[in-house]
Write a structure and sequence with these properties.
The protein is an alpha+beta fold. It is 33% helix and 24% strand.
Length: 544
């Protein structure tokens, strides 16, 4: 016999747990049953009105909410006439489930469900393939909020307590524990015992007795601890939480000797039209950044979206910006403080550069200062706008797609298409692939080939399109077919295959070493936009 076995059978640790303010963390066993040869513990929980906590804690019975409870029910009394009613959670005491264990007919498998109100409060996504609920913070970063199997559920306790505080309900924690021993009570030096203890927010009942098992095992003693405790809710969270006070200082100008001039981005510390902070910079003070600041957002198109004039994060936040410049990005000082979190501001700060004569783009000036509509001038924005409008107008006019809709798995190709942010060969290759998918791989060969008199078996896509243009679009300049072939050759030589002597020739032909990746790709985007505009004219599509 182990020396600590009597202590184990008395559940000393669980007894102290009930009377303390401890809560399992960071993961709370909202529904869990663990079985070992000598120990079996079941955890469960519910939500209880705080006004009932003392009453329930002094109720000498078992749990006040059982596994499987929580479903709606109707009731009726005997009498003339009988009274009828409806309980949304199956009881008249205001107790609500956090987790519902569901059982079905026809031997359908049981399932565990997390309370809808909790899921909606935290806007949790049910990732069923991995058996978890995902929570997104203010920066759009996802983390696990709950994990579940067919018969268990654990929840991040910080999210559960925040929900309890908002709802102003107490968290009821239920535990039912059995411990076994192969030694008799006499061998353990113990006697049959029944004990009970309770307080303002807990109760437990304990017993230890001989084990008369009908099973073929050697257990001789059984101990049981059945209890519950109630965790009162914290204060109601602020409806509008106070904004962070950790506003970063950004470079907004320089001294004559080159020393940076910095100022906080806290909107409350900027000059406004009402005369506050007259010596401070105004809200619309331009702050400049290296264009690589956008790399993080382009790299994760499922989470972020970079558009002409803004960057956004999965509906969590968005910020206006001026990204219609070739080698830098501009944001307003006040927007940096208002629209970004501390973490995002710190990220932008790492790319902050002095103005050094830089200015906002003409596009930004027209839109933000003069309040005009203005088309973008940057090559990638102009191309994406032309591509989107052409597809919309062509389908409306002709009833089919000249450029097929991208597969769901390829939608990112359009979203992340951009001029290289730096002189980076890998980025150049990636954007070549995206542009080629949009203009060459997406050509609707089946529709293009219909009725072509000159079509030959085995003609590749660009050749089909060339013959289509020759027969149906004689006014389309031939330079565009040459451009598509050049694009296909670039993709094959530079991005899609191992580089070799053909690539070296390509570098020389394009002048990549002298002109750089950014200039060459911008030139390709300009050609691509001109191609789309000439297509509009050839198909007689209305101007937009």
């Amino acid at each position: 016999m182990k020396a600590d076995e009597p202590i184990r059978l008395r559940f000393e640790e669980l007894r102290s747990f009930f009377a303390s303010d401890r809560i399992p963390h960071p993961w709370f066993p909202a529904l869990k049953n663990s079985k070992q040869p000598e120990l079996e513990i079941t955890w469960y929980c519910a939500l209880v009105p705080p006004a009932r906590v003392k009453e329930l804690a002094n109720d000498g019975g078992g749990w006040d909410f059982s596994i499987g409870d929580g479903a709606p029910t109707t009731w009726s009394t005997f009498g003339d006439p009988p009274e009828q009613g409806y309980y949304p959670y199956g009881n008249d005491g205001g107790i609500e489930p956090v987790v519902i264990m569901r059982h079905f007919h026809h031997n359908r498998p049981s399932s565990v469900e997390l309370a809808q109100e909790f899921r909606l409060f935290h806007n949790l996504f049910d990732d069923r393939k991995k058996g978890r609920f995902l929570f997104a913070d203010d920066d759009g970063n996802e983390s696990e909020a709950a994990r579940y199997t067919d018969d268990s559920m654990e929840i991040r306790i910080d999210l559960l307590l925040k929900f309890c505080a908002a709802k102003q309900y107490a968290l009821a924690i239920y535990v039912d524990a059995f411990a076994y021993s192969t030694n008799s009570l006499d061998e353990l030096g113990l006697a049959p015992t029944s004990e009970h203890d309770s307080g303002d927010a807990f109760m437990w009942s304990y017993s230890i007795n001989p084990w008369d098992s009908f099973m073929d095992d050697d257990r001789k003693t059984i101990a049981r601890l059945l209890g519950r405790k109630y965790v009162l809710p914290g204060p109601m969270p602020e409806v509008w939480p106070s904004r962070s006070k950790e506003y970063h200082e950004f470079i907004i100008d320089t001294q004559p000797d080159g020393t940076p001039i910095r100022h906080t981005c806290d909107p409350d510390q900027l000059a406004n039209f009402f005369g506050a902070n007259p010596d401070a910079p105004i809200y619309l003070t331009p702050v400049f950044f290296r264009s690589e600041v956008l790399a993080k957002y382009y790299a994760d198109p499922e989470k972020y979206e970079v558009e002409d004039g803004s960057v956004r994060c999965s509906g969590m936040w968005s910020m206006r910006m001026d990204n219609d410049n070739d080698d830098y990005v501009v944001a307003w000082l006040g927007d940096l403080g208002r629209d970004l979190s501390d973490k995002e501001r710190a990220y932008w700060l790492s790319y902050n550069i002095p103005p050094d004569g830089r200015k906002i783009s003409d596009t930004c000036y027209a839109r933000a200062i003069r309040g005009w509509f203005a088309d973008p001038k940057k090559a990638d924005h102009a191309f994406k706008q032309a591509y989107r409008l052409f597809r919309e107008d062509f389908r409306k006019a002709d009833g089919w797609d000249l450029f097929l809709e991208l597969h769901d798995a390829d939608q990112y190709c359009f979203k992340i298409l951009h001029a290289p942010l730096a002189e980076n060969g890998a980025e150049f290759d990636d954007q070549l692939i995206n542009l080629t998918k949009l203009l060459v791989d997406s050509l609707n060969e089946a529709e293009i080939a219909k009725g072509l008199a000159t079509l030959e078996k085995g003609d590749p896509g660009i050749t089909k399109f060339e013959k289509f243009c020759g027969e149906k679009l004689p006014n389309l300049p031939a330079e565009h077919i040459a451009f598509l072939r050049e694009l296909q050759r670039l993709r094959s030589t530079s991005a899609a295959h191992r580089k070799g002597s053909r690539y070296d020739k390509l570098v020389a032909d394009l002048g990549l070493e002298d002109r750089g990746y950014r200039e060459v790709f911008n030139e390709m985007l300009v050609k691509a936009t001109r191609f789309l505009l000439d297509l509009r004219a050839a198909f007689h599509l209305p101007e937009r």
